Amino acid sequence: GLKAVAGDLKGPAGTIAANEMPLNQFFEIYAQYSGRTILRPAALPAAAVTLLAQTDLTLIEVVEAMDGVLALNGVTMIPIGEKFVKAVPSTTADREGAPISEMDREQMPLSEQFITKIVKLNNAKPSEIATMLVGFSKSQNAVTPIDSNSTLVLRDFSSNVKRMLEIIEKVDVMPEKDFSLE
Predict the structure, then answer these.
(1) CA 20 to 30 Å from 64, out of 30, 58, 124, 141?
(2) Strands (E), the chain
(3) CA quadruple 92, 98, 138, 55: dihedral positive or negative?
């Protein structure tokens, strides 16, 4: 991720001003803010990107905003190690090797960063929860249930995974014992 100091550095409102900017030019700015080299295929959705910062943003928030506007234009940014980020069409993002996140739900940003999260269930059956969770994603492949070891593999934007984890916390509980009135 960005260096620790990046969370404290603030740029004034209007630091980012992209008005129907061509994707290649937007990627140059993205690379400067993220400190990462962008790897991209020749074919990406043709997008003219518009993003104008209305408030002061930290460097991390700038990159999150850029990730978000790219996602809205059909491009998903997937970090690779510390130095690179891969730009892929959002339609195929779930088939790319997104990094496995060790963050818990509270730490996850409500952003369009693409991640993989592996969740071990305690009580519920993965295949039963999977059908419910897939509704929180634009991709049918975002949720992979593995019943044999009570695991769910979630591959989606951080904001969607965060919502899925909230649902899992509420659903993956011990059933209450039947009680009778004396």
Answers:
(1) 141
(2) 10-11, 17-22, 37-39, 48-52, 57-58, 75-80, 84-89, 114-120, 143-146, 151-157
(3) negative
